[in-house]
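Structural biology now treats backbone shape like a language. To illustrate, our science desk offers a sequence and the tokens encoding its fold:
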Amino acid sequence: REYLLQQSRMAQMGELISMIAHQWRQPLNIIASTSAALQMKLAVNKFDLALESGREAFKSFFDKNLKDIDAHVANLTVTMDDFRNFYNPNKQSSMLSIESPVKKALSIIRASLTSHDIVIEEKYEDTQPVEMHENEIIQVILNVLKNAQDNFKEKKTPSPKIVISTKRTEASTLLQICDNGGGIPADIMERIFEPYFSTKSEHMGTGLGLHMSRMIMESHHNGRFYAGNTADGVCFTIELSLAGDAE
């Protein structure tokens, strides 16, 4: 079981690096264009530094742009921290809102999704803490989101959309990730959780992701991981027991 988990995580590393590249591209482009704008303003003598008003305008312009650069650098740092923490081998469980791993997963993959014109809708009803191994829950969430993205691409889904919602019952916290990608044929619905079973072409997946996600939920969290079709797609549900027992 541990070998399968390691194999799954190694396969996912390449995908994660691609997601990080997407996530970094926009702020890096903004930093580069801001730097170019600063250089251009200096080159064309935009500000008359001989005048007090010119010096004040110069200071204000540079201050604003440097703050913008700082903000984007901070965004890059957060993304890298999320990526690094994802591979932290620490197995200590924590009491966290289910919203926490969702936000961290989205910080890694959001740019990749939006670059493919995938709309992400978030509905958080449950914000109460529940016991979990956060990095493992992030892995499950990323797996579902990446599968949805690949399915949209393969089916050329018009107006692709993912809805992420949370709610709490008397016994558990539920996280649902639903898409409008056409759903899964009924005859293979349960087979998608078998090891090495995949509907993707060979170069797009190992067939381990959903199997490992179910194993993580059942073996490490005393929880459940299952799927069901909707009118226009499929919903994957992550269920965490309020009784805890994350191992």
Remarks:
- The chain has five helices and seven strands.
